[in-house]
Amino acid sequence: MEMVMAIKDMMAKRAAEEIQNGNVVNLGFGIPQKVLNYIDKEKTVFFHAENGILGAGPAAHKGQEDPDIVDSGCVPITAVKGASYFDSADSFGLVRSGKLDITILGALEVAANGDLANWIVPGEVVPGMGGAMDLAKKAKKVIAITMHTDKKGVPKLRDRCRLPLTATNCVSLIITDIAVLKVTENGFLLTELFEGHTAEEVIEKTAARVEVAENIRIISYNQESK
């Protein structure tokens, strides 16, 4: 269990590298929420929550929760100095008008052309797609962060998604537990590997053609440093 958590933290830290000073960023549920813990302290980043916060901060510590400050999943969070609050209509107006620089979303499947499926699993009851389709289509950059395969070892990166789509042709970068891949006109391009993994492993665990970049970065983080 500790190994899995460490992997997820490394994935979040790698995603944080994509965020630039001054960016407006939305984080999806799950692993993306960990990205907040790895933002360079010298960067000014404006985190957006769909329920109406620009300037969202990390989760609130136990005993310091404010019932009026929660994220879109009703999890108590903090807000940075100067944060602004607004209703859902204005919040999605911000999203749909293209003001988000980056959204980092979890994924159930990603296709080689950038299609994203992340909202429904056949046979399971879900409340609906929510704002994921707006985020995926309107953010300037969409990063998918997910385990490379599901619990049964079935590839999540595929030639075409089998699950109902959230949005088409939207994902540009994928961060998994073993590698980082770009979505190009030719499909998946392997550019980085987490230490201990190989290009052959990525190819074997991907249900689509994978091109391998000439210079592969090997990602190795000191887990004690953020």
Written description of the protein model:
Helices cover 16% and strands 31% of the residues. With 226 residues, it is α/β, with parallel strands linked by helices. It has one domain (2-40, 89-219): 3-Layer(aba) Sandwich (Glutaconate Coenzyme A-transferase). The strands form two sheets. It has a ten-stranded mixed beta sheet. The chain has a three-stranded mixed beta sheet with strand order 7-6-9, with no helix packed on it. It is globular.
Short description:
By secondary structure, the protein is α/β, with parallel strands linked by helices. The chain is 16% helix and 31% strand.
Anisotropy-based shape:
globular
Structural class: alpha/beta
- Compute the number of strand runs: 13
CATH topology title: Glutaconate Coenzyme A-transferase
Mean pLDDT equals 93
Give the number of domains: 1
Tell me the series of helices and strands, N- to C-terminal: HEEEEHEEEHEEEEEHE
User: Can you identify the CATH superfamily?
Assistant: Glutaconate Coenzyme A-transferase
Give, in spatial order, the strands making up the sheet with the most strands. 4-3-2-1-5-8-10-11-12-13
Helical fraction: 10-25%
Low-confidence stretches: 1-5
CATH class: Alpha Beta
Strand count, sense and barrel status of the largest sheet are: 10 strands, mixed
Q: What percent strand?
A: 25-35%
Number of helices: 4
Compute the separation of the termini in Å. 20 Å
Radius of gyration: 17 Å
